[in-house]
Every structure is written in C-alpha cells, then in structure tokens.
Specification:
Number of strands: 8
Largest sheet: 8 strands, parallel, barrel
CATH superfamily: Protein of unknown function UPF0759
CATH topology: TIM Barrel
Radius of gyration: 19 Å
Number of domains: 1
Strand order of the largest sheet: 1-2-3-4-5-6-7-8
Order of helices and strands: EHEHEHHEHEHEEHHEHHH
Length: about 300
Amino acid sequence: MSTSPLFGTAGWSYAHWNGLVYPKVYGSGFHPLEFLARRFDTVEINSSFYQHLKPEVVRLWMKKVEANPRFQFTAKLHQRFTHSRVLDDTEVAAFADGLRPMLRAKKLGAVLMQFPWSFRFTAENKDFFIRLRRAFHEFPLVAEMRHSSWMAEEAVGVFLDYRVGFCNIDQPDYMRAMPPTSYLTSGVGYVRLHGRNPQNSLGGYSRDAASQRVRQHDYLYSEAELAEWAKRIEHIRRFADSTFVIFNNDAQGKSVVNALQLQSLMGGGRATAPKELRRKFPMELEQFGSGYTEQQSLFSAA
C-alpha cells in the first residue's frame, strides 16, 4: 500500500549550514538531527560512504529523531564496495553491524549503492552487482546508476530480478548521463536530486577537482523544476511501499529550501524554515515562516 513520500536531505553535518540552517553557535542541548526531524521525515546518512558506522552512534541518532515516529533513515553503502569493488567478508560484516540496529528497529528505509559514471552495464559489472546484492541480502538495497546504459531493458530486468530499488536521479547533462526517470523496481521508491549546475559533472570530468567540489552542490531548483519532479514522484509513490526523496544540493542550505518546497507542494505540510535561511531566500521561503503557518492554522479552524 502506497504512503506519502518522505522528504529530506543528503547528510546533515555541514559546517557551512551553521548560522544559516542551524544556529551560528549552539550549546550541548542542540543536535542537527533533532532539528531536521522536526521538519522532515528522512535524512540520508552520507558518512557511511567514507567510514563504517558504530552501532552506539547509530543508536544515538535514532534517539535524536524519536519525537517524529514517521522518521526513517537511509544510508549510503561504503565506497570500498561500490568504487573499489572490494567484497571482503570481514568488511562486509563490519559495515552490516553498524547499520543493523536501525534495521532491527525498523528505522532503516534503504541502503543506497551509489556507483560512479564509469560503472556501465556490462556482463562483468552485472555479475558484480549481483554479488554485492547477495553480500548485503538482509538490507533493502537501492542503486544509483549515473551511466545511461543501465536504462537498457536487460539492465532494468536485473534490478527487478534481484529486488533492488532503482534510484531516479536529477543531475547535470553530460555524455551518456542518466536522464530523469520514474522507475520502480522494488517496494522502495527512491529519488535523488543533485542539482543541474553544468560545472558539476557527476561523470567526474574536471581539470580542477578542488574548485569543482566547492561548486558541486550549488544549485537551487525552480518551482517549475520541482513541479516536474512532483509528477514523477507521484507516479512512483502510487505503487511503492515507501518513497524517499533526497536533495543533495547542500550549498548554502539549498537542499533544505527545495526539500521544504517540494514537501509542501506534494501535500506534506508546510514546516517552518530556519530564520536565517528565510532571510537568505525570502522569495522561495516567503510562506515558510512561523507566523504564516500559525495564520493558516487559524484560517483552517475558522
């Protein structure tokens, strides 16, 4: 049975969000996850792409979002598996141990296998994809493919056969880039919006990797672009058991802005935007102030 999509951001620990999304200075009683869980129903753990998670830290994160019973985490699979293609039993076990507390608590909506553009649909890569799926068989897996060869009928068939969710992405246009899609190949619907900054080629072509990293997630979706994705997401949601919509354009807190907008557009309520973020984006967040929300509640009750 389909449910409303869960909207959120890719990651939450960004120094450039201090004083914009989060307070500039905050005490020991403040936690970013608690802050985001009051506004969104999901967040994608991106630190798991770089290091194994510790079970005790994962339990702390779950505690921080307890006030929102609808909240679900998603997590990225470590790059050792998707990029270095290492399938060592010890490493697989260590990674699984970190996420297992969330899985057992039914707080883990999906584990994202993010593959590089160079991972094209070939017989060799198909076999590795299947091996990776079997190594993490206990988890609800989703795969992000950035090369358009994975749109082939046979490739989509592999997703279906092995019950791996297809991650529908929005990204800049470049050679053989995966275009926007609305595929559903398992019970989990997944959408990741990277932004369309032409200087952010997810294919990895850049003469200046450092400056590209600064620009990488610098893009603000327009209302018209969000409306396009709302149609695709609605198509996915109707048939999915759960649907996750993740914004990865974190520069200047733009992922928070767009997540609030799309969540509201698709009937998920209008959460209050952080004060400094409203000052930065007054037009986009005009209707996301606490006063406006209270006013609308009064009108609804009248």
